[in-house]
Amino acid sequence: MNYFDEYDVFSTLVITAHPFYNIHMETLAKLAATSQNMFLEPDAEHECQPQIGGVLAETRIPIAEVVKSGGGRMKVLKTMLTTACERDCHYCPFRAGRHTRRATFKPDELAGIFTQVHRAGAVEGLFLSSGIIKGGVTTQDKLLDTAEILRKKRGFRGYLHLKVMPGLEKDQLLRAMQLASRVSINLEAPNAGRLAALAPKKRFDAELLAPLVWAHQIRRTLDPRQTWNGRWASTVTQFVVGAVGETDLELVSVSERLYKQLGLARAYYSAFHPIADTPFEDLPAEDEARKVRLYQTSFLLRDYGFSMEELPFEPDGSLPRHTDPKTAWARQHLAAAPIELNRASREELLRVPGIGLKGADRILHARRQRRLHDLSQLSKLGIRAARAADFVLLDGRRPARQPALF
Ligand code: SF4
User: Fold this and answer.
1) Which residues line ligand 1 (CB under 6 A)?
2) 171 CB neighbour count, 10 Å cutoff
3) Percent of the chain with pLDDT over 90
């Protein structure tokens, strides 16, 4: 299975028949504790608090549902090796000194409970993160031990997403990329100045950017046959959005450089939510709509051939909230010069609002069979025809819109 390009969403899963009678109650409670608040580790655009209920209905364990680009979904347990941490990131519920329940697993203990939950059919994959205790190197070793046990002793061949600890060594990153399907190296902020305001003990260049560079070097120079499945783990990062005044332009610029220069698979944007008993507890939550615009813009850069100069940033560095960036671009460039869908290249098709990656391929295929001359043909191809209508020609004519029924 190819995990390189998957994208993830959460959805609410409620497992009503508890399949884990043989897991000790205390262990399950600990797993519930280390799996809460995982919305701070977004490999998802939407967050929720799903649960495992039934016999142990009081034990709530969030399960993420991952949607892969090739279609299909899988359930993923997102958890931490420890919720204790010696760092003090201002936005984080696990920061040192905050009053909260802490729980810690040993690597073989976590590998064991995950194997049981996996074999019971409740989840197919694991996202494993951790608070930092005794430095990034020591903590990373424990994450690697867990991954080794899963892959080598327990024979787990499914999806494994490993978090990379700030301050790890290059050899540790290599091992993580040999064992995992995906690794996250979270920048948190678009530059060193913003990071200092968010997470004063994290060092932007040495601890976060350097591993992203190493990951790219590893993929480019080393033989992937040394990995568990013959493919290097993909790399993703995440940003906390809206806590320290960073602009959309800052976030999108650094995302674009990571996509183009370091082969990043995906940037995630996590809208800031204040957590009680943290230095940011009185800050307002960030508008989720901002996150949506950031994702849309980021995909235009990664997949649709757009450049930074073409994106509709306001003078203050923000993206328009009232319209999506592709439509804003099309209004300026295509409204007066619509694209003929029977002749357009794939690159041109991808510029049209309502036409996505699959839609462009379907148009190319369909027009080899017959000419396209009305919007209903587009709708049958899965194109959002009403969105495309103002920016295209069909057989040399602007398409007639279907009158709205209501
Ligand atoms: S390093 Fe920072 S973000 Fe990570 S768990 Fe510790 S306090 Fe939270």
Assistant:
1) 85, 87, 89, 92, 94-95, 131-132, 199
2) 10
3) 78
